[in-house]
């Protein structure tokens, strides 16, 4: 069998968290799109009030059962992996899954308030002004400190490494070319174990109209290549029409960083795949 990056889609969300389609519909669409290694990776539970209804419950018994039922349904046709996108503010363990994606979506202030990295100008501005004294680069630095903390846990995949840039088109909030920003981002990347964790090239910000290029930035991918790390292409799909969205663009970005292969996640483990 000739392998293709489009055969693998393991960063996906459904109506069990904040997705738009049921897990059954997502699996059916994945199979129809030629995906043969499909991962369900709903958002882990957090204690954040704003997350209620958009993340899994703390008791994931039903979630596990639903995914394993899909695995049985597609046996012999498409491998279904039980995954989890684990948030840095989560109050549950990421253990006991086929794989887990370690991600940062929030920063927690000393007063207990949570500020989302990607929820809009009001959230970013509140974090900048209330938590960081008006210093937008301090928001990015705090975000990357949390990324480094998640990376140290050695997730299977590190999710959207520079999500903090989602709303920053045209350097709207901070200059991504400044040494201060790049130092913070690279320090987070250097906390990742290239022998234990895959770095995703994530097209979700493009499919939802926030960005024109996938995460992460080219300078980070080039450094990851120099570190000997491996990559996986993901769509961060929240709907049935985005399961392999932008994979060609992601592959071109990977090649520009020096990669010739990506990784497919299978039930038997990671498999190298030419780009």
Counting DSSP H or I runs of 4 or more residues, the number of helices is 8
* Proportion of beta-strand residues: 15-25%
The strands making up the biggest β-sheet line up spatially as 1-2-3-4-7-8-9
Record field, number of beta strands: 11
User: Would you list the SSEs in sequence order as H and E?
Assistant: EHEHEEEEHHEHEHHEHEE
Q: What percent of the residues sit in helical stretches (DSSP H or I)? A: 25-40%
Low-confidence runs of at least 5 consecutive residues = none
SS content category: alpha/beta
Profile the largest sheet: 7 strands, parallel
Give Rg in angstroms.
18 Å
Shape: globular
What is the averaged pLDDT score? 97
Alpha-carbon distance between the termini? 15 Å
Please describe what this structure looks like.
- 31% of the residues lie in helices and 18% in strands.
- It is an alpha/beta fold.
- Helix 3 crosses helix 4 and helix 4 (136-151) packs parallel to helix 5.
- The two termini are 15 Å apart.
Summarize the topology.
Elements: E1 8-9, H1 23-32, E2 37-40, H2 61-73, E3 79-87, E4 99-103, E5 106-108, E6 114-116, H3 121-131, H4 136-151, E7 157-158, H5 179-190, E8 198-202, H6 204-207, H7 218-226, E9 230-234, H8 247-256, E10 261-266, E11 269-274
Parallel strand pairs: 1-2, 2-3, 3-4, 4-7, 7-8, 8-9
Antiparallel strand pairs: 5-6, 10-11
